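hey can u run this one w/ magnesium ion bound, need the structure tokens asap thx
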Amino acid sequence: MSVNMKVIEETIENNKMLQSTKIVANKTLSLHTNGISVCKIPSTEAEVREIWRNADAVCFDVDSTVCEDEGIDELAEFLGKSDEVIEITHQAMSGNLDFHQALMKRLEIIHPSLQEIQSFIRARPPRLTPGIRELIAILQKRGTQVYLVSGGFMSVIKHVGAALNIPTDNIFCNRLKFYYDGRFSGFEENALTAHSGGKREIIRMLKEKHQYKRIVMVGDGATDMETCPPADAFVGFGGNAIREAVKKGSKLFVTSFQELIDELKINYPSYSRHLSESASSSSDDGNGSSSD
Ligand SMILES: [Mg+2]
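ok here u go:
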């Protein structure tokens, strides 16, 4: 590699996230060593609903959960490399392919430049799943910490976070790397989210670091379901895509975020009504707008 071909991170912001992830990785290792984290898995739907209503932190998957589509598939389609990439995505989501291998294979095919990523963001801003904006507003208003935990890329997901008022410190995902001239050079391979089981390790770390008593994972995929434990509960989401293994394995499986909003109103009826009215008056859920 020449002097001019040094690898740079996507943004300064991402460098900060990289530091954070390395700290996470070290801490996770020590937690494994000490065997600290213990979690009872809820055995009934009623138990999951009770934990959901009283969660002090909620982690959301992004692709096909917070957003209506799979970001990497959208990027591939935008760059005319769709068919091969979608097949690999399906294998990964079904648990038939190691996540790290799947990520590497897909990026080798897509090979996006920084300029192509920027064009993609401008042409196809994230499409938020209906109801997610209101749900997250309710959670945040009552003091529940909200995180995005995704195998997608920061250059895309930071726009999702901005649209949902989720700070980048609460976003855990992968980072693409580029040469100074913008050519694709790879991805941060040591990030926890670049490996199978990475989401589970991030939740383990969050629980330990913040001493959360009830942390819930919401997602559509096998990698989301496997976070419980250490997550105290898992909610399967089938509003955009239904994975049969996840539907079958989830104690609580919903196809609309309204179901989760309604559940929260059991504890906070008047509060949630006020928030619903506020959110609906300014919501553009489903229109997918977010600024670059
Ligand atoms: Mg997903």
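Confidence is low (pLDDT under 50) at residues 1-38, 281-292. anyway lmk if its weird
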